[in-house]
């Protein structure tokens, strides 16, 4: 986990201290109207609000999401 956090810091300038997994059901693949989708929505809203307060602009957040999605 430490290596992943270091890579994200080095390549994207984002600081991660843990994977953010609190409940396994947060990773549910129950479709766009299920619990997993609700969690995704909450996390995106949180990133949109907190990112600029930490010095990240919208382009930074979009670039990170695009890069993360392409690596899957």
- Number of E-type strands: 0
- Find the structural class using helix and strand composition: mainly alpha
Q: State the order of secondary-structure elements, H for helix, E for strand.
A: HHH
What is the straight-line distance between the termini?
17 Å
Structural overview:
By secondary structure, the chain is an all-alpha fold.
SSE blueprint and pairings:
Blueprint: H1 2-12, H2 35-53, H3 58-70
What descriptive keywords fit this protein?
60% helix, 3 helices, mainly alpha, 72 residues
Offer a concise description of the structure.
The protein has 72 residues and is mainly alpha-helical. It has helices at residues 2-12, 35-53, 58-70.
């Amino acid at each position: 986990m430490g290596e992943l956090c270091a890579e994200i810091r080095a390549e994207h300038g984002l600081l991660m201290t843990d994977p953010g997994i609190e409940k396994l059901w947060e990773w549910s693949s129950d479709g766009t109207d299920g619990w997993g989708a609700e969690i995704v929505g909450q996390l995106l809203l949180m990133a949109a609000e907190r990112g600029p307060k930490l010095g990240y602009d919208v382009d930074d957040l979009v670039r990170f999401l695009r890069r993360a999605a392409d690596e899957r």
